[in-house]
Amino acid sequence: MTAASFPCGMLIPILYASTVCEMVTSMELWPGAWTLLLLLFLLLLFLLPILWFCSPSAKYFFKMAFYNGWILFLAVLAIPVCAVRGRNVENMKILRLMMLHIKYLYGIRVEVRGAHHFPPSQPYVVVSNHQSSLDLLGMMEVLPGRCVPIAKRELLWAGSAGLACWLAGVIFIDRKRTGDAISVMSEVAQTLLTQDVRVWVFPEGTRNHNGSMLPFKRGAFHLAVQAQVPIVPIVMSSYQDFYCKKERRFTSGQCQVRVLPPVPTEGLTPDDVPALADRVRHSMLTVFREISTDGRGGGDYLKKPGGVGEARL
């Protein structure tokens, strides 16, 4: 029988039956796919507790992943609240309030000493050692009013966290372009004086995981001298007793945050900056070794003496 002579009335039932068969076949495949996904999910649930209790490295990665993910989630919650004011340093209070609980999730006790050293009613520059992203816990614990960090520009593109930081008035600097960084610092100096703002700077310039302090860059000290405002050094004790990136170790522990007496800059000139940076770093390093070996957070390995090093641009 040729196609031309094939009755049209028989063609329709055959096409309908073919379509039904395809639908049945498709429906039969779906339960298999869902079963596979369910098995994979159950396997993951079974493996996670085993990895958590048997592998410190896996626990480290789980904790760091949750830490970063939780901060991004909190930023999503903070953005609409901060957006009411627009870009405003007062929004930093919102971010601080939303992050204060994180230390409890990780069993980290933060002890603050010397908070009375903060000048009560004037601009100043805070300089602090920089060990890891966990510095946020100590920073939020002691962050004074109308104080914003100076951060690398890459943070601005860190999703919800970057937008939340921008709304909170965080100052972003492109460290690869020295001319732009100097220009921004000059603007910051004017902002310090005209808007009663304090800034928080990590003068090491990058995170330092080796349990000491890197040589200080001088930008923060040039800023303080240009604005003729005091420098308030803050030292966070070593995290080595509970956190070590190299060893993939992250447990509970205690960190001490020490606020040192302000260092005046009145009358100083740019020529005095190198000596000023060295002096501040030396005092901070001395305190760092002290609070990191007194049983309140740190590591006994820090008892070994080390050089102060030279400040750098």
Automatic annotation (TrEMBL):
The keyword Membrane applies. Residues 124-239 form the Phospholipid/glycerol acyltransferase domain. One of its GO terms (biological process) is phosphatidic acid biosynthetic process. One of its GO terms (molecular function) is 1-acylglycerol-3-phosphate O-acyltransferase activity. GO terms for cellular component: endoplasmic reticulum; membrane. The chain crosses the membrane at residues 33-53, 65-86. Its EC number is 2.3.1.51. Pathway: Phospholipid metabolism; CDP-diacylglycerol biosynthesis; CDP-diacylglycerol from sn-glycerol 3-phosphate: step 2/3. Keywords: Acyltransferase, Lipid biosynthesis, Lipid metabolism, Membrane, Phospholipid biosynthesis, Phospholipid metabolism, Transferase, Transmembrane, Transmembrane helix. The keyword Lipid biosynthesis applies. Coiled coil: none annotated. It is an enzyme of class 2 (transferase). Pfam families: Acyltransferase. InterPro entries: AGP_acyltrans (IPR004552), Plipid/glycerol_acylTrfase (IPR002123). It catalyses: pentadecanoyl-CoA + 1-(9Z-octadecenoyl)-sn-glycero-3-phosphate = 1-(9Z)-octadecenoyl-2-pentadecanoyl-sn-glycero-3-phosphate + CoA; 1-(9Z-octadecenoyl)-sn-glycero-3-phosphate + tetradecanoyl-CoA = 1-(9Z)-octadecenoyl-2-tetradecanoyl-sn-glycero-3-phosphate + CoA; heptadecanoyl-CoA + 1-(9Z-octadecenoyl)-sn-glycero-3-phosphate = 1-(9Z)-octadecenoyl-2-heptadecanoyl-sn-glycero-3-phosphate + CoA; 1-(9Z-octadecenoyl)-sn-glycero-3-phosphate + hexadecanoyl-CoA = 1-(9Z)-octadecenoyl-2-hexadecanoyl-sn-glycero-3-phosphate + CoA. Signal peptide: none annotated. Belongs to the 1-acyl-sn-glycerol-3-phosphate acyltransferase family. The HXXXXD motif is essential for acyltransferase activity and may constitute the binding site for the phosphate moiety of the glycerol-3-phosphate. Converts 1-acyl-sn-glycerol-3-phosphate (lysophosphatidic acid or LPA) into 1,2-diacyl-sn-glycerol-3-phosphate (phosphatidic acid or PA) by incorporating an acyl moiety at the sn-2 position of the glycerol backbone. This is 1-acyl-sn-glycerol-3-phosphate acyltransferase. It comes from Camelus dromedarius. The lineage of its organism: Eukaryota, Metazoa, Chordata, Craniata, Vertebrata.
